[in-house]
Design brief:
The chain has 2 domains: 39 residues, no CATH class; 222 residues, 2-enoyl-CoA Hydratase, Chain A, domain 1 (Alpha-Beta Complex). 35% of the residues lie in helices and 15% in strands. It is built from 10 helices and 9 strands. It has a 7-stranded mixed beta sheet, sandwiched between helices. Helix 5 runs parallel beside helix 6.
C-alpha cells in the first residue's frame, strides 16, 4: 500500500470529529438561533411562536403554524382545498414543471403555495389566506391567484375583512404570462372589496418579493410586517447594478420600509393575534358571541 492509499483509507474509516458546541437539530429537540447563537429547547421556541427570546429573531414558520397562531382554535374552515395546478405550457428547464410540482406536493403535503379559508380571531370573523414558502418558494401561479381571488370574493359577499399572509419569491416563471395575470386578477378583487367598504390587511413576512410585492402585498388599508422581513421587488444586487449606486444598509427590510412610509406597522409574532383583534375592533368589524 502506498502512502497516498494509506491516507485515503484513513479518511474513509476515521470517525468524524464533532464540535461539542454544534447543536444537533436532527433529533428535533434543540434549535440554535442563526442570529445570536442561543440554543433553546425546541418546545420552548415553539411556545414563543418560534421567536428567539435572546434577540427576537423570527424563525421561518409555515402555513399550518401561522394558521394556528392567527385563528381561534378549531375555527379555521379551509376553502378550495382540492384546487390543484396544471402544466399549461408544458414547461421544462433542467427539469419539467410537472416533476417540480410533484416533488413540492410530496415534500410539503400541500397542493400549491397558499391555503385559504374562513376563521375567527378572538371571535372576529376573518377571511384568511396564508402563503407557504416551502412550495416552490411561495411562487404565485394560477392556483395561488385563483384561490386568493375566490377568498376575496367570498369575503366581499359575506362582508368580511381579509388578511393575506405573504411569503413569496414572486410570480411562478413556469406558468409565464398566466402567472403575471394573477397580479391583476387579485388586485381587481381587492378593489371591489374596498369599494364595498371592507378592510384588507396584508402581513408581509420573510421574504415578500417580486410580483406579490408589486400587487396585493402593497394594496392593504393597513400594511403589517414581521420584524426584519425582506420586502422588495427586485433583488438588492440587481438594483445596485441597474442604478450603479450603493444602497443603504437595511434596505428592503421591514424597518426601512416603515421608516419610509411603505409599511404601517411592524408586529412581533407573539403579539399578532391581539394586534389583529384590536385592528378589527377599531375598524368596526363585529365579533361573534362565543358559543
Amino acid at each position: 500500500m502506498s502512502l497516498f492509499d494509506w491516507f485515503a483509507d484513513r479518511r474513509k474509516t476515521a470517525p468524524a470529529v464533532r464540535n461539542t458546541q454544534d447543536v444537533d437539530e436532527g433529533d428535533g429537540l434543540w434549535s440554535k438561533c442563526p442570529e445570536c447563537g442561543l440554543v433553546v429547547y425546541r418546545k420552548d421556541l415553539l411556545a414563543n411562536a418560534s421567536v428567539c427570546k435572546g434577540c427576537g429573531h423570527h424563525h421561518r414558520i409555515f402555513s399550518e403554524e401561522r394558521i394556528a397562531l392567527i385563528a381561534d382554535p378549531g375555527s379555521f374552515e379551509p376553502l378550495d382545498s382540492n384546487l390543484g395546478p396544471t402544466d399549461p405550457l408544458a414547461f421544462k428547464d433542467r427539469r419539467s414543471y410537472a416533476d417540480r410540482l410533484r416533488d413540492s406536493q410530496s415534500s410539503t403535503g400541500l397542493i400549491d403555495a397558499v391555503i385559504t379559508g374562513l376563521c375567527r380571531v378572538e371571535h372576529h370573523p376573518l377571511a384568511l389566506g396564508v402563503m407557504d414558502f416551502r412550495f416552490m418558494g411561495g411562487s404565485m401561479g394560477s392556483v395561488v391567484g385563483e384561490k386568493l381571488t375566490r377568498l376575496i370574493e367570498i369575503a366581499t359577499a359575506q362582508r368580511l375583512p381579509v388578511l393575506i399572509v405573504c411569503a413569496s419569491g414572486g410570480a411562478r416563471m413556469q406558468e409565464g404570462m398566466l402567472s403575471l395575470m394573477q397580479m391583476a386578477k387579485i388586485s381587481g378583487a381587492l378593489q371591489r372589496h374596498r369599494e364595498a367598504g371592507l378592510l384588507y390587511l396584508p402581513l408581509l413576512t420573510h421574504p415578500t418579493t417580486g410580483g406579490v410585492t408589486a400587487s396585493f402585498a402593497m394594496l392593504g388599508d393597513l400594511i403589517l410586517a414581521e420584524p426584519k422581513a425582506l420586502i422588495g421587488f427586485a433583488g438588492r444586487r440587481v438594483i445596485e447594478q441597474t442604478l450603479r449606486e450603493k444602497l443603504p444598509d437595511g434596505f428592503q427590510t421591514a424597518e426601512y420600509l416603515r421608516d419610509h412610509g411603505f409599511v404601517d406597522l411592524i408586529v412581533a409574532r407573539p403579539d399578532l393575534r391581539e394586534t389583529l383583534s384590536s385592528l378589527l375592533r377599531l375598524h368596526g368589524c363585529p365579533a361573534l358571541q362565543p358559543a
